[in-house]
Design brief:
- 34% of the residues lie in helices and 20% in strands.
- It has 14 helices and 16 strands.
- The radius of gyration is 21 Å and the shape is globular.
- Bound molecules: zinc ion.
- Residues 11, 13-14, 16, 38, 40-41, 43 line the site of zinc ion.
Amino acid sequence: MRPEILDVLCCPECYGELEMGPDARSDALEVVDGTVVCRACGETYGIDRGILTLTRDDAEWRELQREAKSWREVPCGPDVTRSLGDLPDDFFDDLPVPPTCLDAIAGKEGEFDLRRYYEVEGHVAAWNLDVLTELLADAEAPLVFDAGVQTGWTSRLLVQHLPHSRVIANDINGFDDRGLGFAKRRLFARHGVYFERVLNDIHVRNVKAGALDAVQACMTLHHYAYPQRALDVLATALRPDGVFVSVEPIVHLGVDKHVNEIETEYWTAHGIREGSFYFTDLYQMLTNAGFGDVRIYPVAAIDPAVEPDGYDARLQLPFYPMPRKYVDRGERGHKSWFDRMASFRFDAFSVPYYVLIYASKDRDLDVVREWFEDEEVRRGRVERSKRYTFYVDPLRPRTDEPEPGSWLLGLP
Ligand SMILES: [Zn+2]
């Protein structure tokens, strides 16, 4: 960590001002060892390998420390566990999901299209990176909180493409092989970037109220024990005109969420939390957290490759259990977006279905509608997002030469 970041952080116990302790040791990049002290209550927080642990040392944090160990040894299906440490570093520069894990799932299910899965992950990450680049273009030195980053792969991309930004990467996992420690071991030097790394419980605020220009939460919300509380905390830390940008998997309204969670219990039995949400839950939680403008679109809107196999007309309801203003908005095509997120159907287990989420407390996000509903604008954004390149096929050697027909390949 670098001492300047303490200007925007606060004590997670009392929200007081923080300062460096007397025992700091630095390398050429940052403070690598030492403590941070709260001026108000005197609580101290440790710095280890440049990573600041800034959270309450309570029973919930100890529970999360157990979960962090589970993320290192990822369950890949019933009775199959892979160590992330066994995988090549190359892969984790760009995308977060271990390929052997997906191989194991493919073996069980026989339907999993690995490459398609990575393309979707890369595509939504690139799209949202482009969105953030645009929404933060006018901010002088925008402060971005990147939630649940695992290795820091999204934070690396943010810093590269928004070089005037300051990024705080958060996770519960600080391990060197596949956690926040990976960033320093691999990403900083290789990509010429730096971002702050903070270990903390997402349900506890450690950023000053109103300090953040943006929160990016890439496929992380469904892992939180109390997503509503986490969103409340993040909303408080955001400026009134700050933006929340996210992508989350959803289930359709014909799925019993509780049964769905039981069916994936090999994750939960292993200690990793996996929640299931309807698109209506996301609207409801964001609205409860104080976001006045919330926009949610299915990922098929930007990526025809994940167009579902069909829609179940019985689930296209006349009314959805969500804040009335979204149902009443009356914008052209809006009802059809809701119907698509309510009733999509995959005949085989191919890829998870994602939704793209944009929210702000005070800022009008009407521009988002254009991105999805104006065909020319939409196509332009897809083209633009191709400049963010990901290495999407872990089963083939890396190359800087893009392969014909695949739009996300190679390194920047
Ligand atoms: Zn304090």
